[in-house]
Design goal:
The protein is mainly α and 200 residues long. It is 39% helix and 0% strand. The chain is globular, with a radius of gyration of 16 Å.
Length: 200
């Protein structure tokens, strides 16, 4: 089965932009996050700070997570070419993440709130982060329940995305845990749509 990581590596080789040498942020060295953060930085999916830290306990905004999701698909260049007003009134063309949000919306990774907004600066919750990763991996068609967020959390558990990761689904997602989730997602098989039949 195909994995996201395969696409990223192919794109990286074609673009020859992936740096082989990089420094592990000092605050994740010898921690549970080290392997995940190291790989994500090497793949240019997530970055550390100029002071050499990663700040794993810092939370991530919804806009920042949209950017991470698009980078996981190796589509940052396309996002840069998609800068324009989004369908959300609170994410205009001048917002730094408008290209990411436009592309993530077009690919069905992102949905907004019932009032039509996206709330780009709001802290992404673990439920929202997990839901976006489940959609990114293509598993949304196999979700049968409409009960949010248990429907996505259940599917995430079934595919091994949240295996061994502890979090309160309603809490703001922290960079360290998000890195672990994103790193796991890279190794999960993408959904084979042929497995979803109308009779299910």
């Amino acid at each position: 089965m195909k994995k996201i990581l395969s696409f990223i590596l192919v794109i990286a080789m074609l673009m020859s932009s992936m740096s082989i040498a990089f420094a592990i942020p000092s605050d994740v060295d010898n921690t549970d996050y080290e392997n995940a953060v190291s790989r994500l930085i090497a793949l240019e999916i997530i970055v550390g700070y100029e002071d050499g830290t990663f700040r794993p306990e810092k939370t991530i905004t919804r806009a920042e997570f949209a950017a991470i999701a698009i980078r996981m698909l190796g589509m940052e260049d396309i996002a840069n070419g998609s800068v324009a007003n989004t369908k959300f009134p609170d994410v205009r063309a001048t917002h730094w993440a408008s290209g990411y949000v436009n592309l993530a919306t077009a690919k069905g990774i992102i949905v907004g709130y019932p009032d039509g907004t996206f709330k780009p600066e709001a802290q992404v919750t673990y439920s929202e982060a997990v839901a976006m990763l489940v959609r990114l991996l293509g598993y949304e068609p196999s979700i049968k329940s409409n009960e949010w967020p248990s429907n996505y959390l259940t599917k995430a558990s079934e595919i091994g995305l949240t295996l061994g990761i502890k979090f309160n689904y309603n809490d703001p997602a922290k960079r360290g845990v998000v890195s672990t989730l994103a790193n796991k997602a890279l190794d999960i098989d993408l959904m084979d749509l042929s497995e979803v039949t109308s009779g299910d």
